[in-house]
Every structure is written in structure tokens, then in C-alpha cells.
Amino acid sequence: MASSSPSPSPSPMFTVRRLQPELVAPAIPTPHELKPLSDIDDQEGLRFHIPMIQVYRNQPSMAEKDPVQVIRKALAKTLVFYYPFAGRLRERPDHKLMVDCTGEGVLFIEADADVTLDQLGDALQPPFPCFEQLLYNVPDSEEITDTPLLLIQVTRLKCGGFIQALRLNHTMSDAAGLVQFLNAWAEMAGGAKSPSIAPVWRRELLMARDPPRITCKHHEYMEFVDTEIEEGSLTLHDDDMVLRSFFFGPSQIASLRRLVPHYCATFDLITACLWRCHTKALKIDADKDVRMMVAVNARAKFNPPLPVGYYGNAIAYPAAVTTAGKLCGNPFGYAVELINKVKGKATQEYMHSVADLLAIKGRYIPRMVRSLTVSDLRGFDPRQIDFGWGHALYAGPAQGGLGPFPGVTFITPFKNAKGEDGLVLPIWLPTEAMNRFSKELDGMFGFICSSL
Known about the structure:
Blueprint: E1 16-18, E2 22-24, E3 34-36, E4 49-56, H1 67-81, E5 88-91, E6 97-100, E7 106-113, H2 117-120, H3 131-134, E8 150-156, E9 162-169, H4 175-189, E10 241-248, H5 250-257, H6 266-281, E11 289-297, E12 315-316, E13 319-323, H7 324-329, H8 332-343, H9 348-361, E14 371-376, E15 394-397, E16 408-415, E17 421-430, H10 431-451
Parallel strand pairs: 7-8, 11-14, 14-16
Antiparallel strand pairs: 1-7, 2-7, 3-6, 4-9, 4-15, 5-6, 8-9, 10-17, 11-12, 11-13, 16-17
Helix pairs in contact: 1-4, 6-8, 6-10
């Protein structure tokens, strides 16, 4: 029977020695000005910090180079172009967020760990062992306003490799914007004088219209009528929550594909599979509504498209809604079709309608009861970011979930221990539900294997 993920192995323990956090400011003076965030940027559902991790092997050709020094120096140069990141957020009396471009800088930590990449083994995926040591949570640094917008820790390893972990204030950028910044940073580390893609602010493009008008249905913000019933609502404060990563390689995807009589996108297959297995694992009553939100990068949905280099949040979360009974009782193709249809909802008009809704309703937050969200990182594979030490072994989410929302997962490019290229999804669930989820996933693959 096909396996959904390797059995969790004991996490290697190691010690990290850190220097005191410091501020890295732009290499030269930058404009001191106030820049408003868009209504998409400063919605309540993005007011948290998102962690990311990048893992690099030793590179013999860089033996004379110290990754900490190379990366810190390149960071200062990159902040000249992305100078809003070196500022601080302020909140107006109407709760609107503004970037005060003070040039103070971002938090940077230099560290060393007494471990090699080989000793970490197959732990190079969420949940990372000792992550709190790889990205030290500087006291009071997780506030949204009046604190640095980026926290970065570069940890040298005994083998000559290193791990870079960072945390970004999500109101500043989405995944595409963050990867754009990281690519510029890597280019500066390689000796470039300026980024190949110039950063574009232009947050007014995603401000609410005047007057604002909600023209689309937004199921992602819709309360279910029975929200007093909390089954299927997960929080990271639950003591019983566990995090596991699940690998979808060529054989797993091929197995799912055979369940659908026509061709469909890999994203649709994986997302539909996740939704069904997750719903069954939580034992949600058949008559209850369940929701799958799909994070859509809407940059190309505009006419003309948003400017190349736009690094603000340009994402929407259109949602498919059905009952648990219909989702789990219908053929697999039913869920696949729901996912396929919902992706197309994030049009230019939809984005304007979201901004207007957020302005009218007071920066609403997406509803998480019996809900999941999937974000696809394949379009801007962060493993390709090269600071001089080659491509990353792993680059992507550090922990799974998104801020306070455990029901969020990412489809992240990944090469497993067997050398297979595939995708990994980090999933949070209560322990017993996690066991059921894993069995449901294996059951879908096993059904196909046994029927061949």
C-alpha cells in the first residue's frame, strides 16, 4: 500500500549558540516617508508574522566565505531598495496601518549549532526540531506595530552548511512578494548592484473603491449558521494538537489521478484529497457545512496586470462550500470539481469587492470553523534562491499553519530521502484525528493499489 508519509522519527537534539540580536539598516540613507498599506494588506486576518526556513549544504567553492557575513552585508544593500521593510508600522485612529519608513532596520541574529545536516536526516521538513533555537523569538518582536518587520537568524552548522530562518510581518507581503525580496537579496549577495526586478509599492491599486461596494459573494468571510457548534474548529492552543508533514510524490499523485475519469490539475487532486481526508478525520456530522479556501495570487488577474515587482499582498481566498456528507459521500471527482471551479473566482472585480468588503465590515477575518485553506508555493519555488551556496535543500514554511490559523497548509516543492521530487504538506490536527487522517490518506492510495 502506498505510504502517505514516513513514520515520524525521533528529532535530533542540538544546541545553538546565538549572539545578541542586532539591527541591520539600509546600507545608505533611504527616504523617510509614510506609506499606507492597502485594504488587502491590513486586514485582520494578515496581522501576524509568518516564519520561513531555508536549509543550505556546505559548498566547497565558498570555503573562504562566511555565510553570516555575506548574507548580512547583502541584506543591508537590499534594504536600500526595499526600504519600507526597514521601517515600522503605525496604526491610525481608524485602525488603518501605515509604514513609517524610519530606516531603523530589521532584526538579525548570528548563530552556530553543534549539528550537521546529515545528523538532521529526514527532519528537514516541518516540524523542524528545535525550531525555537533556529529562530529566536526576540521579546516583544511579534507585535504588529512599532516593531521590526523582519526577524532573521542565520545559523552555521558543523558541516559548513547553514540554516536561514526568518519571520515576516504578513501585512507587508504575501508569499510571492517575500520570494521576490529573497531573490533580490540573493542577487545582491552575488554581487549585483541592484535587483533584476525593481520593487513596486503602488498599494493604492488594492485600496477600497469610493464608494465601496460589495459585488461578489465571499464565502470565505461567511459565518456558518450553527457557529455555536465548534466541531472542526481548530486552535493552536489545544494541548492535543500535533504537526506532521505528508509527501505527495509521483506514485501518490498517479493514484489520485486514477480516481477521476478526466484530466485535472495536480493542485485540484491534492486539495480535494486533503479536504475529504481532513473532514473524515474530524468526524464532522454529515449535515454540517465544510469549507475549503484556496489562496489565489491575483497579480495576473488584473487588466492590466499588477505591475511587475509589486510585493504587497495580492491574494484572495475564494471558498468552496458543501456539506460533509456530500463531500465524503460523493465520488472523489465531486470534490475535485468544486476546487477547480473556485480557483477561477478570484477575478479583478472579486479583488476589488474583497477590498470594499474589508473597508465596509472593518477588516473582517476569514472564518475558520470547519474550514481549511491551501496555498500553492510551486509557482515561485523558494528552493531556487541562491546566496552563493547553491539551491536550498528545503525552503518554505517552517511550522505549518499560518499565524493563529492551524487549518492552513502549503503545497511546497520537496525532494524526499529517496531522491523523489514531489510535494510536502504540513498538517495540524489533534492526535486521534491525525491518526485517522493518515489512515484515510493511505486508504485512498491503498484502494487504488489493491484494484490494479
